[in-house]
Structure formats: C-alpha cells, structure tokens
Amino acid sequence: MLRFILRRLLQTIPVLFVVATVTFFMLRVAPGGPFDEEKRIPEEIVRKLEAHYGLDKPLWQQYLIQMKNLLRGDFGPSFKYPKRTVNELIADAFPVSLELGCYALLVALTLGIVAGVIASLRPNTASDYVPMALAMIGICFPTFVTGPLLSNYFGLQLGWFNPGGWFFPEDRVLPALTLGFYYAAYISRLTRGGMLEVLNQDYIRTARAKGASESRVVVRHALKGGLLPVVSFMGPAAAGLLTGSFVVETIFNIPGLGRFFVMSAFNRDYTMVLGTVLFYATLIVLLNLVVDVILVWLNPKLKFE
Amino acid sequence: MSLLRCRTVQCRLCVLLAVVLCAFPFLTGCGKRHTRVETGIRDQILHAGNGTDPQDLDPHITTGEPEHKILMALFEGLVTEAPDDLRPLPGVAERWDISEDGLVYTFHLRTNALWSNGDPVTAQDFVNSYHHMLLPELGARYREMLYPIRNAEAFSTGRITDFNEVGAKALDPHTLEITLHSPVPYFLSLIMHNSWFPVHLPTILKHGDIAERANRWSLPGNFVGNGPFVLKEWKVNSHVLVEKSPTYWDRDNVKLNAIYFYSTENVDAEERAFRAGMLHLTKDVPQTKIQVYQQNQPHLIRCEPILSVYFYRLNVTSPPLRDKRVRRALALVIDRELLVKHVTRGGQVPAYQLTPPGIPGYEPRARFSEDVALAQRLMAEAGYPNGNNFPGVNILFNTHEGHRAVAEAIQQMWMKHLNIRVTLRNEEWKVYLNTTQSMDYEVARAGWGGDYIDPGTFLDLFITDGGNNETGWSHAEYDRLIQEAARTGDMKKRFELFQKAEDILMDEMPIIPLYFYTRPTLIHPAVRNFYPTLLDLHPWKYVYLEPPSS
C-alpha cells in the first residue's frame, strides 16, 4: 500500500506542474491586467507597480521565478491585498471553508445515505419514490436557489438563524444545509443504486438465511458494498466542499476560500489565482488518493496495483 | 414513543432522519434573540455595510470608496468635513491663514492632537506624510491629488530629488506652511481626501522601508492612526472593527464606541442582513428592492443625489461618429425621463450636461433637451436620411444587469427614432477596461464620480490625451479653457471658464450624459447625524445611535 501511495504522490508532481503552467499562461493571455481601473492610473505608476510585482520582466523569466517560488511553497504577494501574501490569505480563509465543508459533508452523507438506504430497501414503493423524488428536486435546485430560500425563510421569516455572516456557531447551519442538500441528493441516488445491486447478491441471501436481522444485514453486510459508488463520487465532491463554494459563500457572506477562487480571477490577481488553483488541484489529487485507498479497503476485489 | 420502538430498518432510519432535521434549531439554541441592531443601539456600536472588501488601510495606497469610509474613522486631516454639507471644519489644524494671492496656506495645529500610540501629531508628521505619498518608488495611485503643492509633481516624477524644494514646511511643531504653484480655490475641500491624511512615519519605518508597498504597518496590531477611532480587527472578506480612540483630542464628543464595517460582494445578502436587524445601514441596495422600500417602508430608505454621472463615451475616431451631427443626433433622441423612471428606477436624475447638480456656485448652462425631429434632421444632413447608409453602431458595457437594461433601452430608442442598426456587446470588467482604454469600441458605458466638489473633477477628463478621455476627442479651445481655469484663483472667473468649456463639450458631444446617480441607503431610524452629502461621505465622529422612540 505504501508503494502505491508513494507512486501516486510522485504522479501528482507532473500534474501540478502542468496545472501551474497552464494557469500561469492562461492568466497572462486573458485581456485586462491587475492594474486596470476605471480611473486610469498614470503610466509611470503602472510601471512602478509592475516593477514591484516583477511584471516588467520578460514572461519566461516571470514564469521561472514563479515556479521557483512555488517549489518553495511561496505563492507570493497578493495583487489585491498589497500588505498580505497569498499564503496568509489562504491560511486565513481555508479553515472557514474547511469547517463549512465538513458540516456540509456531514449533512450530505447523513441525509444522502439514510435516504438512499430507505429507498433501496423497498424499491418501486412509496418509500422509494418519495426520497428519490426529493433527491431529484434537490439535484434540480442549485445552491443559488436553495440558499436565498433558506436564508429568507429561516433567517427572515422565522428568525431562527442569521440570514448571513460567519460570527456565531448557528451561522453554520443554513450554509451547511444549502451545500449539504445539494450533495445529499446525489449521494442518495448513488446509495440507492449501490444498495440495490448489493442487496441482490448471494452473500446477502446467505446472511438472511442464517437468520441475521434486517438491520444487521443492511448495516453490517450490505452498506459496505452499497457505498462504493458514493465513495468514488466523494473524492472530487469533498475537494469541492472543503475548498468552499463561491455561490454559498457569497449568498451567506462567508469569508472562505471559494470567494477568493472566483474574485481573484475577476481582479486579475495573478498570484492569488495561481495559489488557489494549485491549492484546489492538490486537494483534489490527495482526496482522490484517499478515495482509492478507501475503495480498496471496502472492496476486496480491488488491489493496490 | 411507539415511533421510537419501531422495528423495521426503514422506520428507524426515518426516525433518525427526522431527528437530524429537527435537531438543528434546538442544538443551535436559536429562537428570537436580540438583533445586532438592538444591542448596537444599547452599546453605541454601529454595524455598517461597506461594499467591497478593503484592499488596504494605508491612506496613501488605497484608492477606493469603501477604504475611504473606513479611513475617515481612523485618520483625521488638517481640516475635516461638516457632517451635513461637508464644508471644511477644523481638524488637526484648529485654524488657518490664507495669503492674499491664495498661494500660501498656514495651518496652526492643535497642541492636544495625538496619535493612537500617544505621540503628538506635529507639523513635521504632515511634511513626512506628503514626502511618503510623493515618493516615486511608492507608486501611490492618487499622488496627483498633492500636485497643487509647489514642486510636488517635479519631486514625484523624479525631476527634482530634494524634498526641501517642495512647498510643504514645518515652521515649528505646530505650524505647517503649504505653498501652492497656483491658486486652488477648492484647496480646503481637496485636503479632506485620504491622500492628504497624515501617517506616522516611525511606525512605517518600524515595519519596513518607507517606500515599500508591502510594508505591514497598516495591519491590526501594527496600526497607528490619529482619528476618532482605532483599528481593532480586520478579517479579510468579513469585516473591519474600529473602536473609539482614547487618545483622540475630541474624544468626549465621539458618541459611538465602535463601528463594524462589513464587506460584501452580494447586494441581496446585504439587504437580507439589513432586514434581519444585522446592519444599521447599508449602501448596497438591490435595484429591484428600491421601489418596494419606497412604497412600503419609506422611513428606511433614502436615495441621496451624489456627485456622480452615468454617461456613454463615443469613439470619435470611428467613421460614423467622427461627425458631430451624428453624435448629437444619438444624444438628442434618448428619453432620459423614461430611462430613470422605468429602467434604472432608483431615483436617478436625468442628465442633460456632464457636471452633476449641487456644486455650490456652479449651475451648468450647457443643458440640451431631447429633440427627435432635430436629431433626424442632423442625421439626414450627415448623409444618413432615415438611417439609410448608416453602418450601424455597437454599445459596449461591462457585464451587469443594470448596464444591460440601459443599453437595451437606448438600443430601442436609436432604432425607433433614427432607424439605425444597433448591436450590444458586454464584456467582463477587466476586459471592458482594456477595450475602452485601447479605444476598440464605438459607444461605451462609463461612470464618473467626483473626488472633491468642483466642476474641474469632471471637465478635466476630456482634455486632449487626458488619461481618462478615452474618446479620441480633442479640442484646442476646450484645452485652453480648462488650463486657464486651473490657473485662476477667482472663483467666479473660474466657473465662467468651466461654463464655456462645458458649452463646447455639449456642442461637440464626444460623450452622451444619461443620468446622475443617486445613492440608495437603507438606514435604521436610530442612526443620527448621518446626512445625505454630495460625495456620499459621512464623518463618523458625529454619528450616534438613539432608539427611534425617544
């Protein structure tokens, strides 16, 4: 297993290198620059700013400097926040996104798996149709619809929660539900599919024949195999959840990484874009690795090859 | 209890699901609580929405409006704004003398003005600050604001290197003399801008080089200011917290104990926060909600006219727009009343000239009026009778629903009255800026807000090759009038020169004024001394909270 993990980790290096290179050059090709403003900045000041950020050097030199800094784990200074580095900004914002992502993950897995299992136990009955219909609605309702709806109803009508912000423990509830519901819908459908397949297997019939209770059959025997599709799905999904959602963070005014991810592109904050893209890419690669390890653990047919 | 005793797996899972769903409100201890607005009124803590996230709190680096509003709490200049009409009031300077020729200003600084670390604020601090701002290496974007000082531009552009030649001198610790290269009648209004705020040089040097842009002196923990409030917290993308300064000279008259400035990128979230009692005031109001508030809760909304204009730039180098008759025709057929009443719907004022109303002593006479018949005649004279042979025109705007709606309305008006082909093009903000700056457009949306109350802040834009002209328009007489106005100390004569310049501008029409902005503000009735002002500035030291019932 160790060899497998090491090999996969080594494979991430060229992946991240390509991601960094493509991002670097795509940013420079995009029209508009970090110092373009409605009130135009005098030319000599633009030159000073470019010199400060090293943008006055030839592009290949800038690229080499950037790559050298990246190797040291230094993303450089932010263009938008002149007194802060990209590393500091990510370090400040990531815990917020991580916390929100964990809660959302909890909501998504709890609701998704429970609803999926319920639906799979009596297929093509009301207890299948109702949760699956709800899941379909959940998939059809994007977060920019559920977010304001929840915020309006629970925040403004009922007054149970603040409609936005990230100051009190209860401020986590609505964003976590918004983000969690969306993923719960997918997870429930994947769980249902996985469970239906597993429940028809011979070893389940054997377990029942041996007199195992229904709950034991489901929890101890079927769930492990039934969740395989969910685990595969959770790799990239967890990366998306943990690095923050721009939409949910914007709707609920949460100071997370998702907002940097999008706003830095609008601001042409070159270093911030590169920093967040690489951070996100690293997380996806690592979480996919974790998912692969879990899949092997869950499915005896798979091996670390 | 029978539900909890259920035997089937489905039943148990259903119970678990129900419990999870129902547990949230109880686990989080929610229910009706005191809102931030209510506790704020009790504790004199103002919660204000402040628009986009501040980039920095160094007054010499920042350029944006959200930053300026926070800086007004953290710093105080030589003079400060009156809360109701922004007239100059004594700030760090308790009085000042102006020489007869209007070139020398002598400021007498109060002896009890202190920095937040306890150091006295001296005349040398102001000289150091101007030095800091003008340092070529710093690359301060707003350094031009200091150019009225004699030799400031020469120093800033490297033509002279000795700062002693610049017209700012500390005659003694509490007397500052500023010498201008030519009279600037609005000088006292100009120096209220954050680029003129003093900075504490020892603090800057403690955290790095004087000309280092990334110097971290303005971060919480390092920050030293001289305003009525001190910086306590700055969480990126969330909020800035300032608290009443114990060292401020007029602290007894500062009633607020703290102000939270919240950042937001989403106007709907901001409005929801206001409705939920999380904000005392916000200036970010969704366009669709303005009329709803005006009809249902007029006591919570104000639409204040501000010194800002929405207009279309015309690229006079592109073939059909080279002809001034075509440009005038395009301007004359736009129904601005309809535009503000049915499209923008925020109480905006139709614009028939460039400079917004409200500048004391300046009532622009270059107003034109809508005239469809004249416009059609002009088009015919230009060789496009009933729009025949007209190659068409494209309107460029940055991606925004409001800009699209305005562009679509104008597209319809031009097509209907002039029978010409009009296409629309929207571009992402930075791409749009790049396109307009490289003049790769025909008609482009634009907006401009004044930095100080003077017609020059608008009319200066369109001098030949001006950095923000971006129309390709050039007029020798216009340039001469603007340059002469800049050298003239006599306010009456100066305004007359501006009138003539605006006459030329509105006759030549390289731009089409559409409307003057208003700034919608959602404001809780408890907020006092927060008056509508032309620059949308509100000195925080006067603001306080009082329960509406009393």
Mean pLDDT of chain A: 87
The CATH superfamily name of the domain at 90-263 in chain A is: MetI-like
Q: How far is the N terminus from the C terminus of chain B?
A: 53 Å
Largest interface: A-B, 66 and 67 residues
Strand content of chain A: under 5%
* Helix vs. strand class of chain A: mainly alpha
Computed structural class of chain B: alpha+beta
**Which CATH architecture of the domain at 90-263 in chain A is right?**
Orthogonal Bundle
Approximately how much beta-strand content do the residues of chain B carry? 15-25%
Helix content of chain A: over 70%
The global form of chain B is globular
How would a textbook summarize the main sheet of chain B? Answer: 7 strands, mixed
Number of strands of chain A: 0
Give the C-alpha Rg of chain A. 24 Å
Order of helices and strands of chain A: HHHHHHHHHHHHH
Low confidence ranges of chain A:
none
Major sheet of chain A: size, sense and barrel closure? none
- What is the CATH class name of the domain at 90-263 in chain A? Mainly Alpha
What does this structure look like?
The complex is a heterodimer of chains A (305) and B (550). Chain A is mostly helical and 305 residues long. Chain A has a domain at 90-263: MetI-like (MetI-like fold, Orthogonal Bundle), CATH 1.10.3720. In chain A, 74% of the residues lie in helices and 0% in strands. Chain A contains 13 helices and no strands. Chain A has helices spanning 2-29, 43-52, 59-71, 86-121, 126-140, 143-157, 173-199, 202-209, 214-226, 228-242, 246-251, 257-266, 270-298. The longest helix of chain A has 36 residues, at 86-121. The model of chain A has no long low-confidence stretch (mean pLDDT 87). In chain B, the strands form 5 sheets. In chain B, strands 11, 12, 13, 14, 15, 16 and 17 form a 7-stranded mixed β-sheet that branches. In chain B, 31% of the residues lie in helices and 19% in strands. Chain B starts with 8 loop residues before the first helix and ends in a 5-residue tail after the last strand. Chain B is α+β, with helices and mostly antiparallel strands and 550 residues long. Chain B is globular, with a radius of gyration of 27 Å. Chains A and B meet through α2, α4, α6, α9 and α12 of A and α1, α8, α14 and β16 of B.
